[in-house]
Amino acid sequence: QVQLVESGGGLVQAGGSLRLSCAVSGRTFSTDATQWFRQAPAAQEREFVAAISWTGGSTYYADAVQGRFTASRDNAKNTFYLQMNSLKPEDTAVYYCNLGGDWGQGTQVTVSS
Known about the structure:
Helix content is 0%, strand content 52%. The protein has strands spanning 3-7, 10-13, 18-25, 34-39, 47-52, 59-61, 69-74, 79-84, 93-99, 102-103, 107-112. Strands 2, 4, 5, 6, 9, 10 and 11 form a 7-stranded mixed beta sheet that branches. A 4-stranded antiparallel beta sheet has the order 1-3-8-7, with no helix packed on it. A hairpin with a 2-residue loop joins strand 9 and strand 10. It is globular.
């Protein structure tokens, strides 16, 4: 059974940083791109945040987080990460990791002004 478990969310002041982790078990990890999405309060859909290729050599970011967020992965640990710097109140959301169509349960990020 595939499991993706996010961690690292929390409450932070604007301008602060958080590092999210997504630990994967139950499937081969290293051959798929991985993605981060988020769903803001009252939003109907999740929005794309970032993606990283299976080699880690290519990354892609939503315009809203470009230059502030950094995606990375450690294939040996079956874990991928989202480093979030210069956080803004509008970054408040539940953050989800995705690998090959499988989703984690989400981790809450709250940024206070």
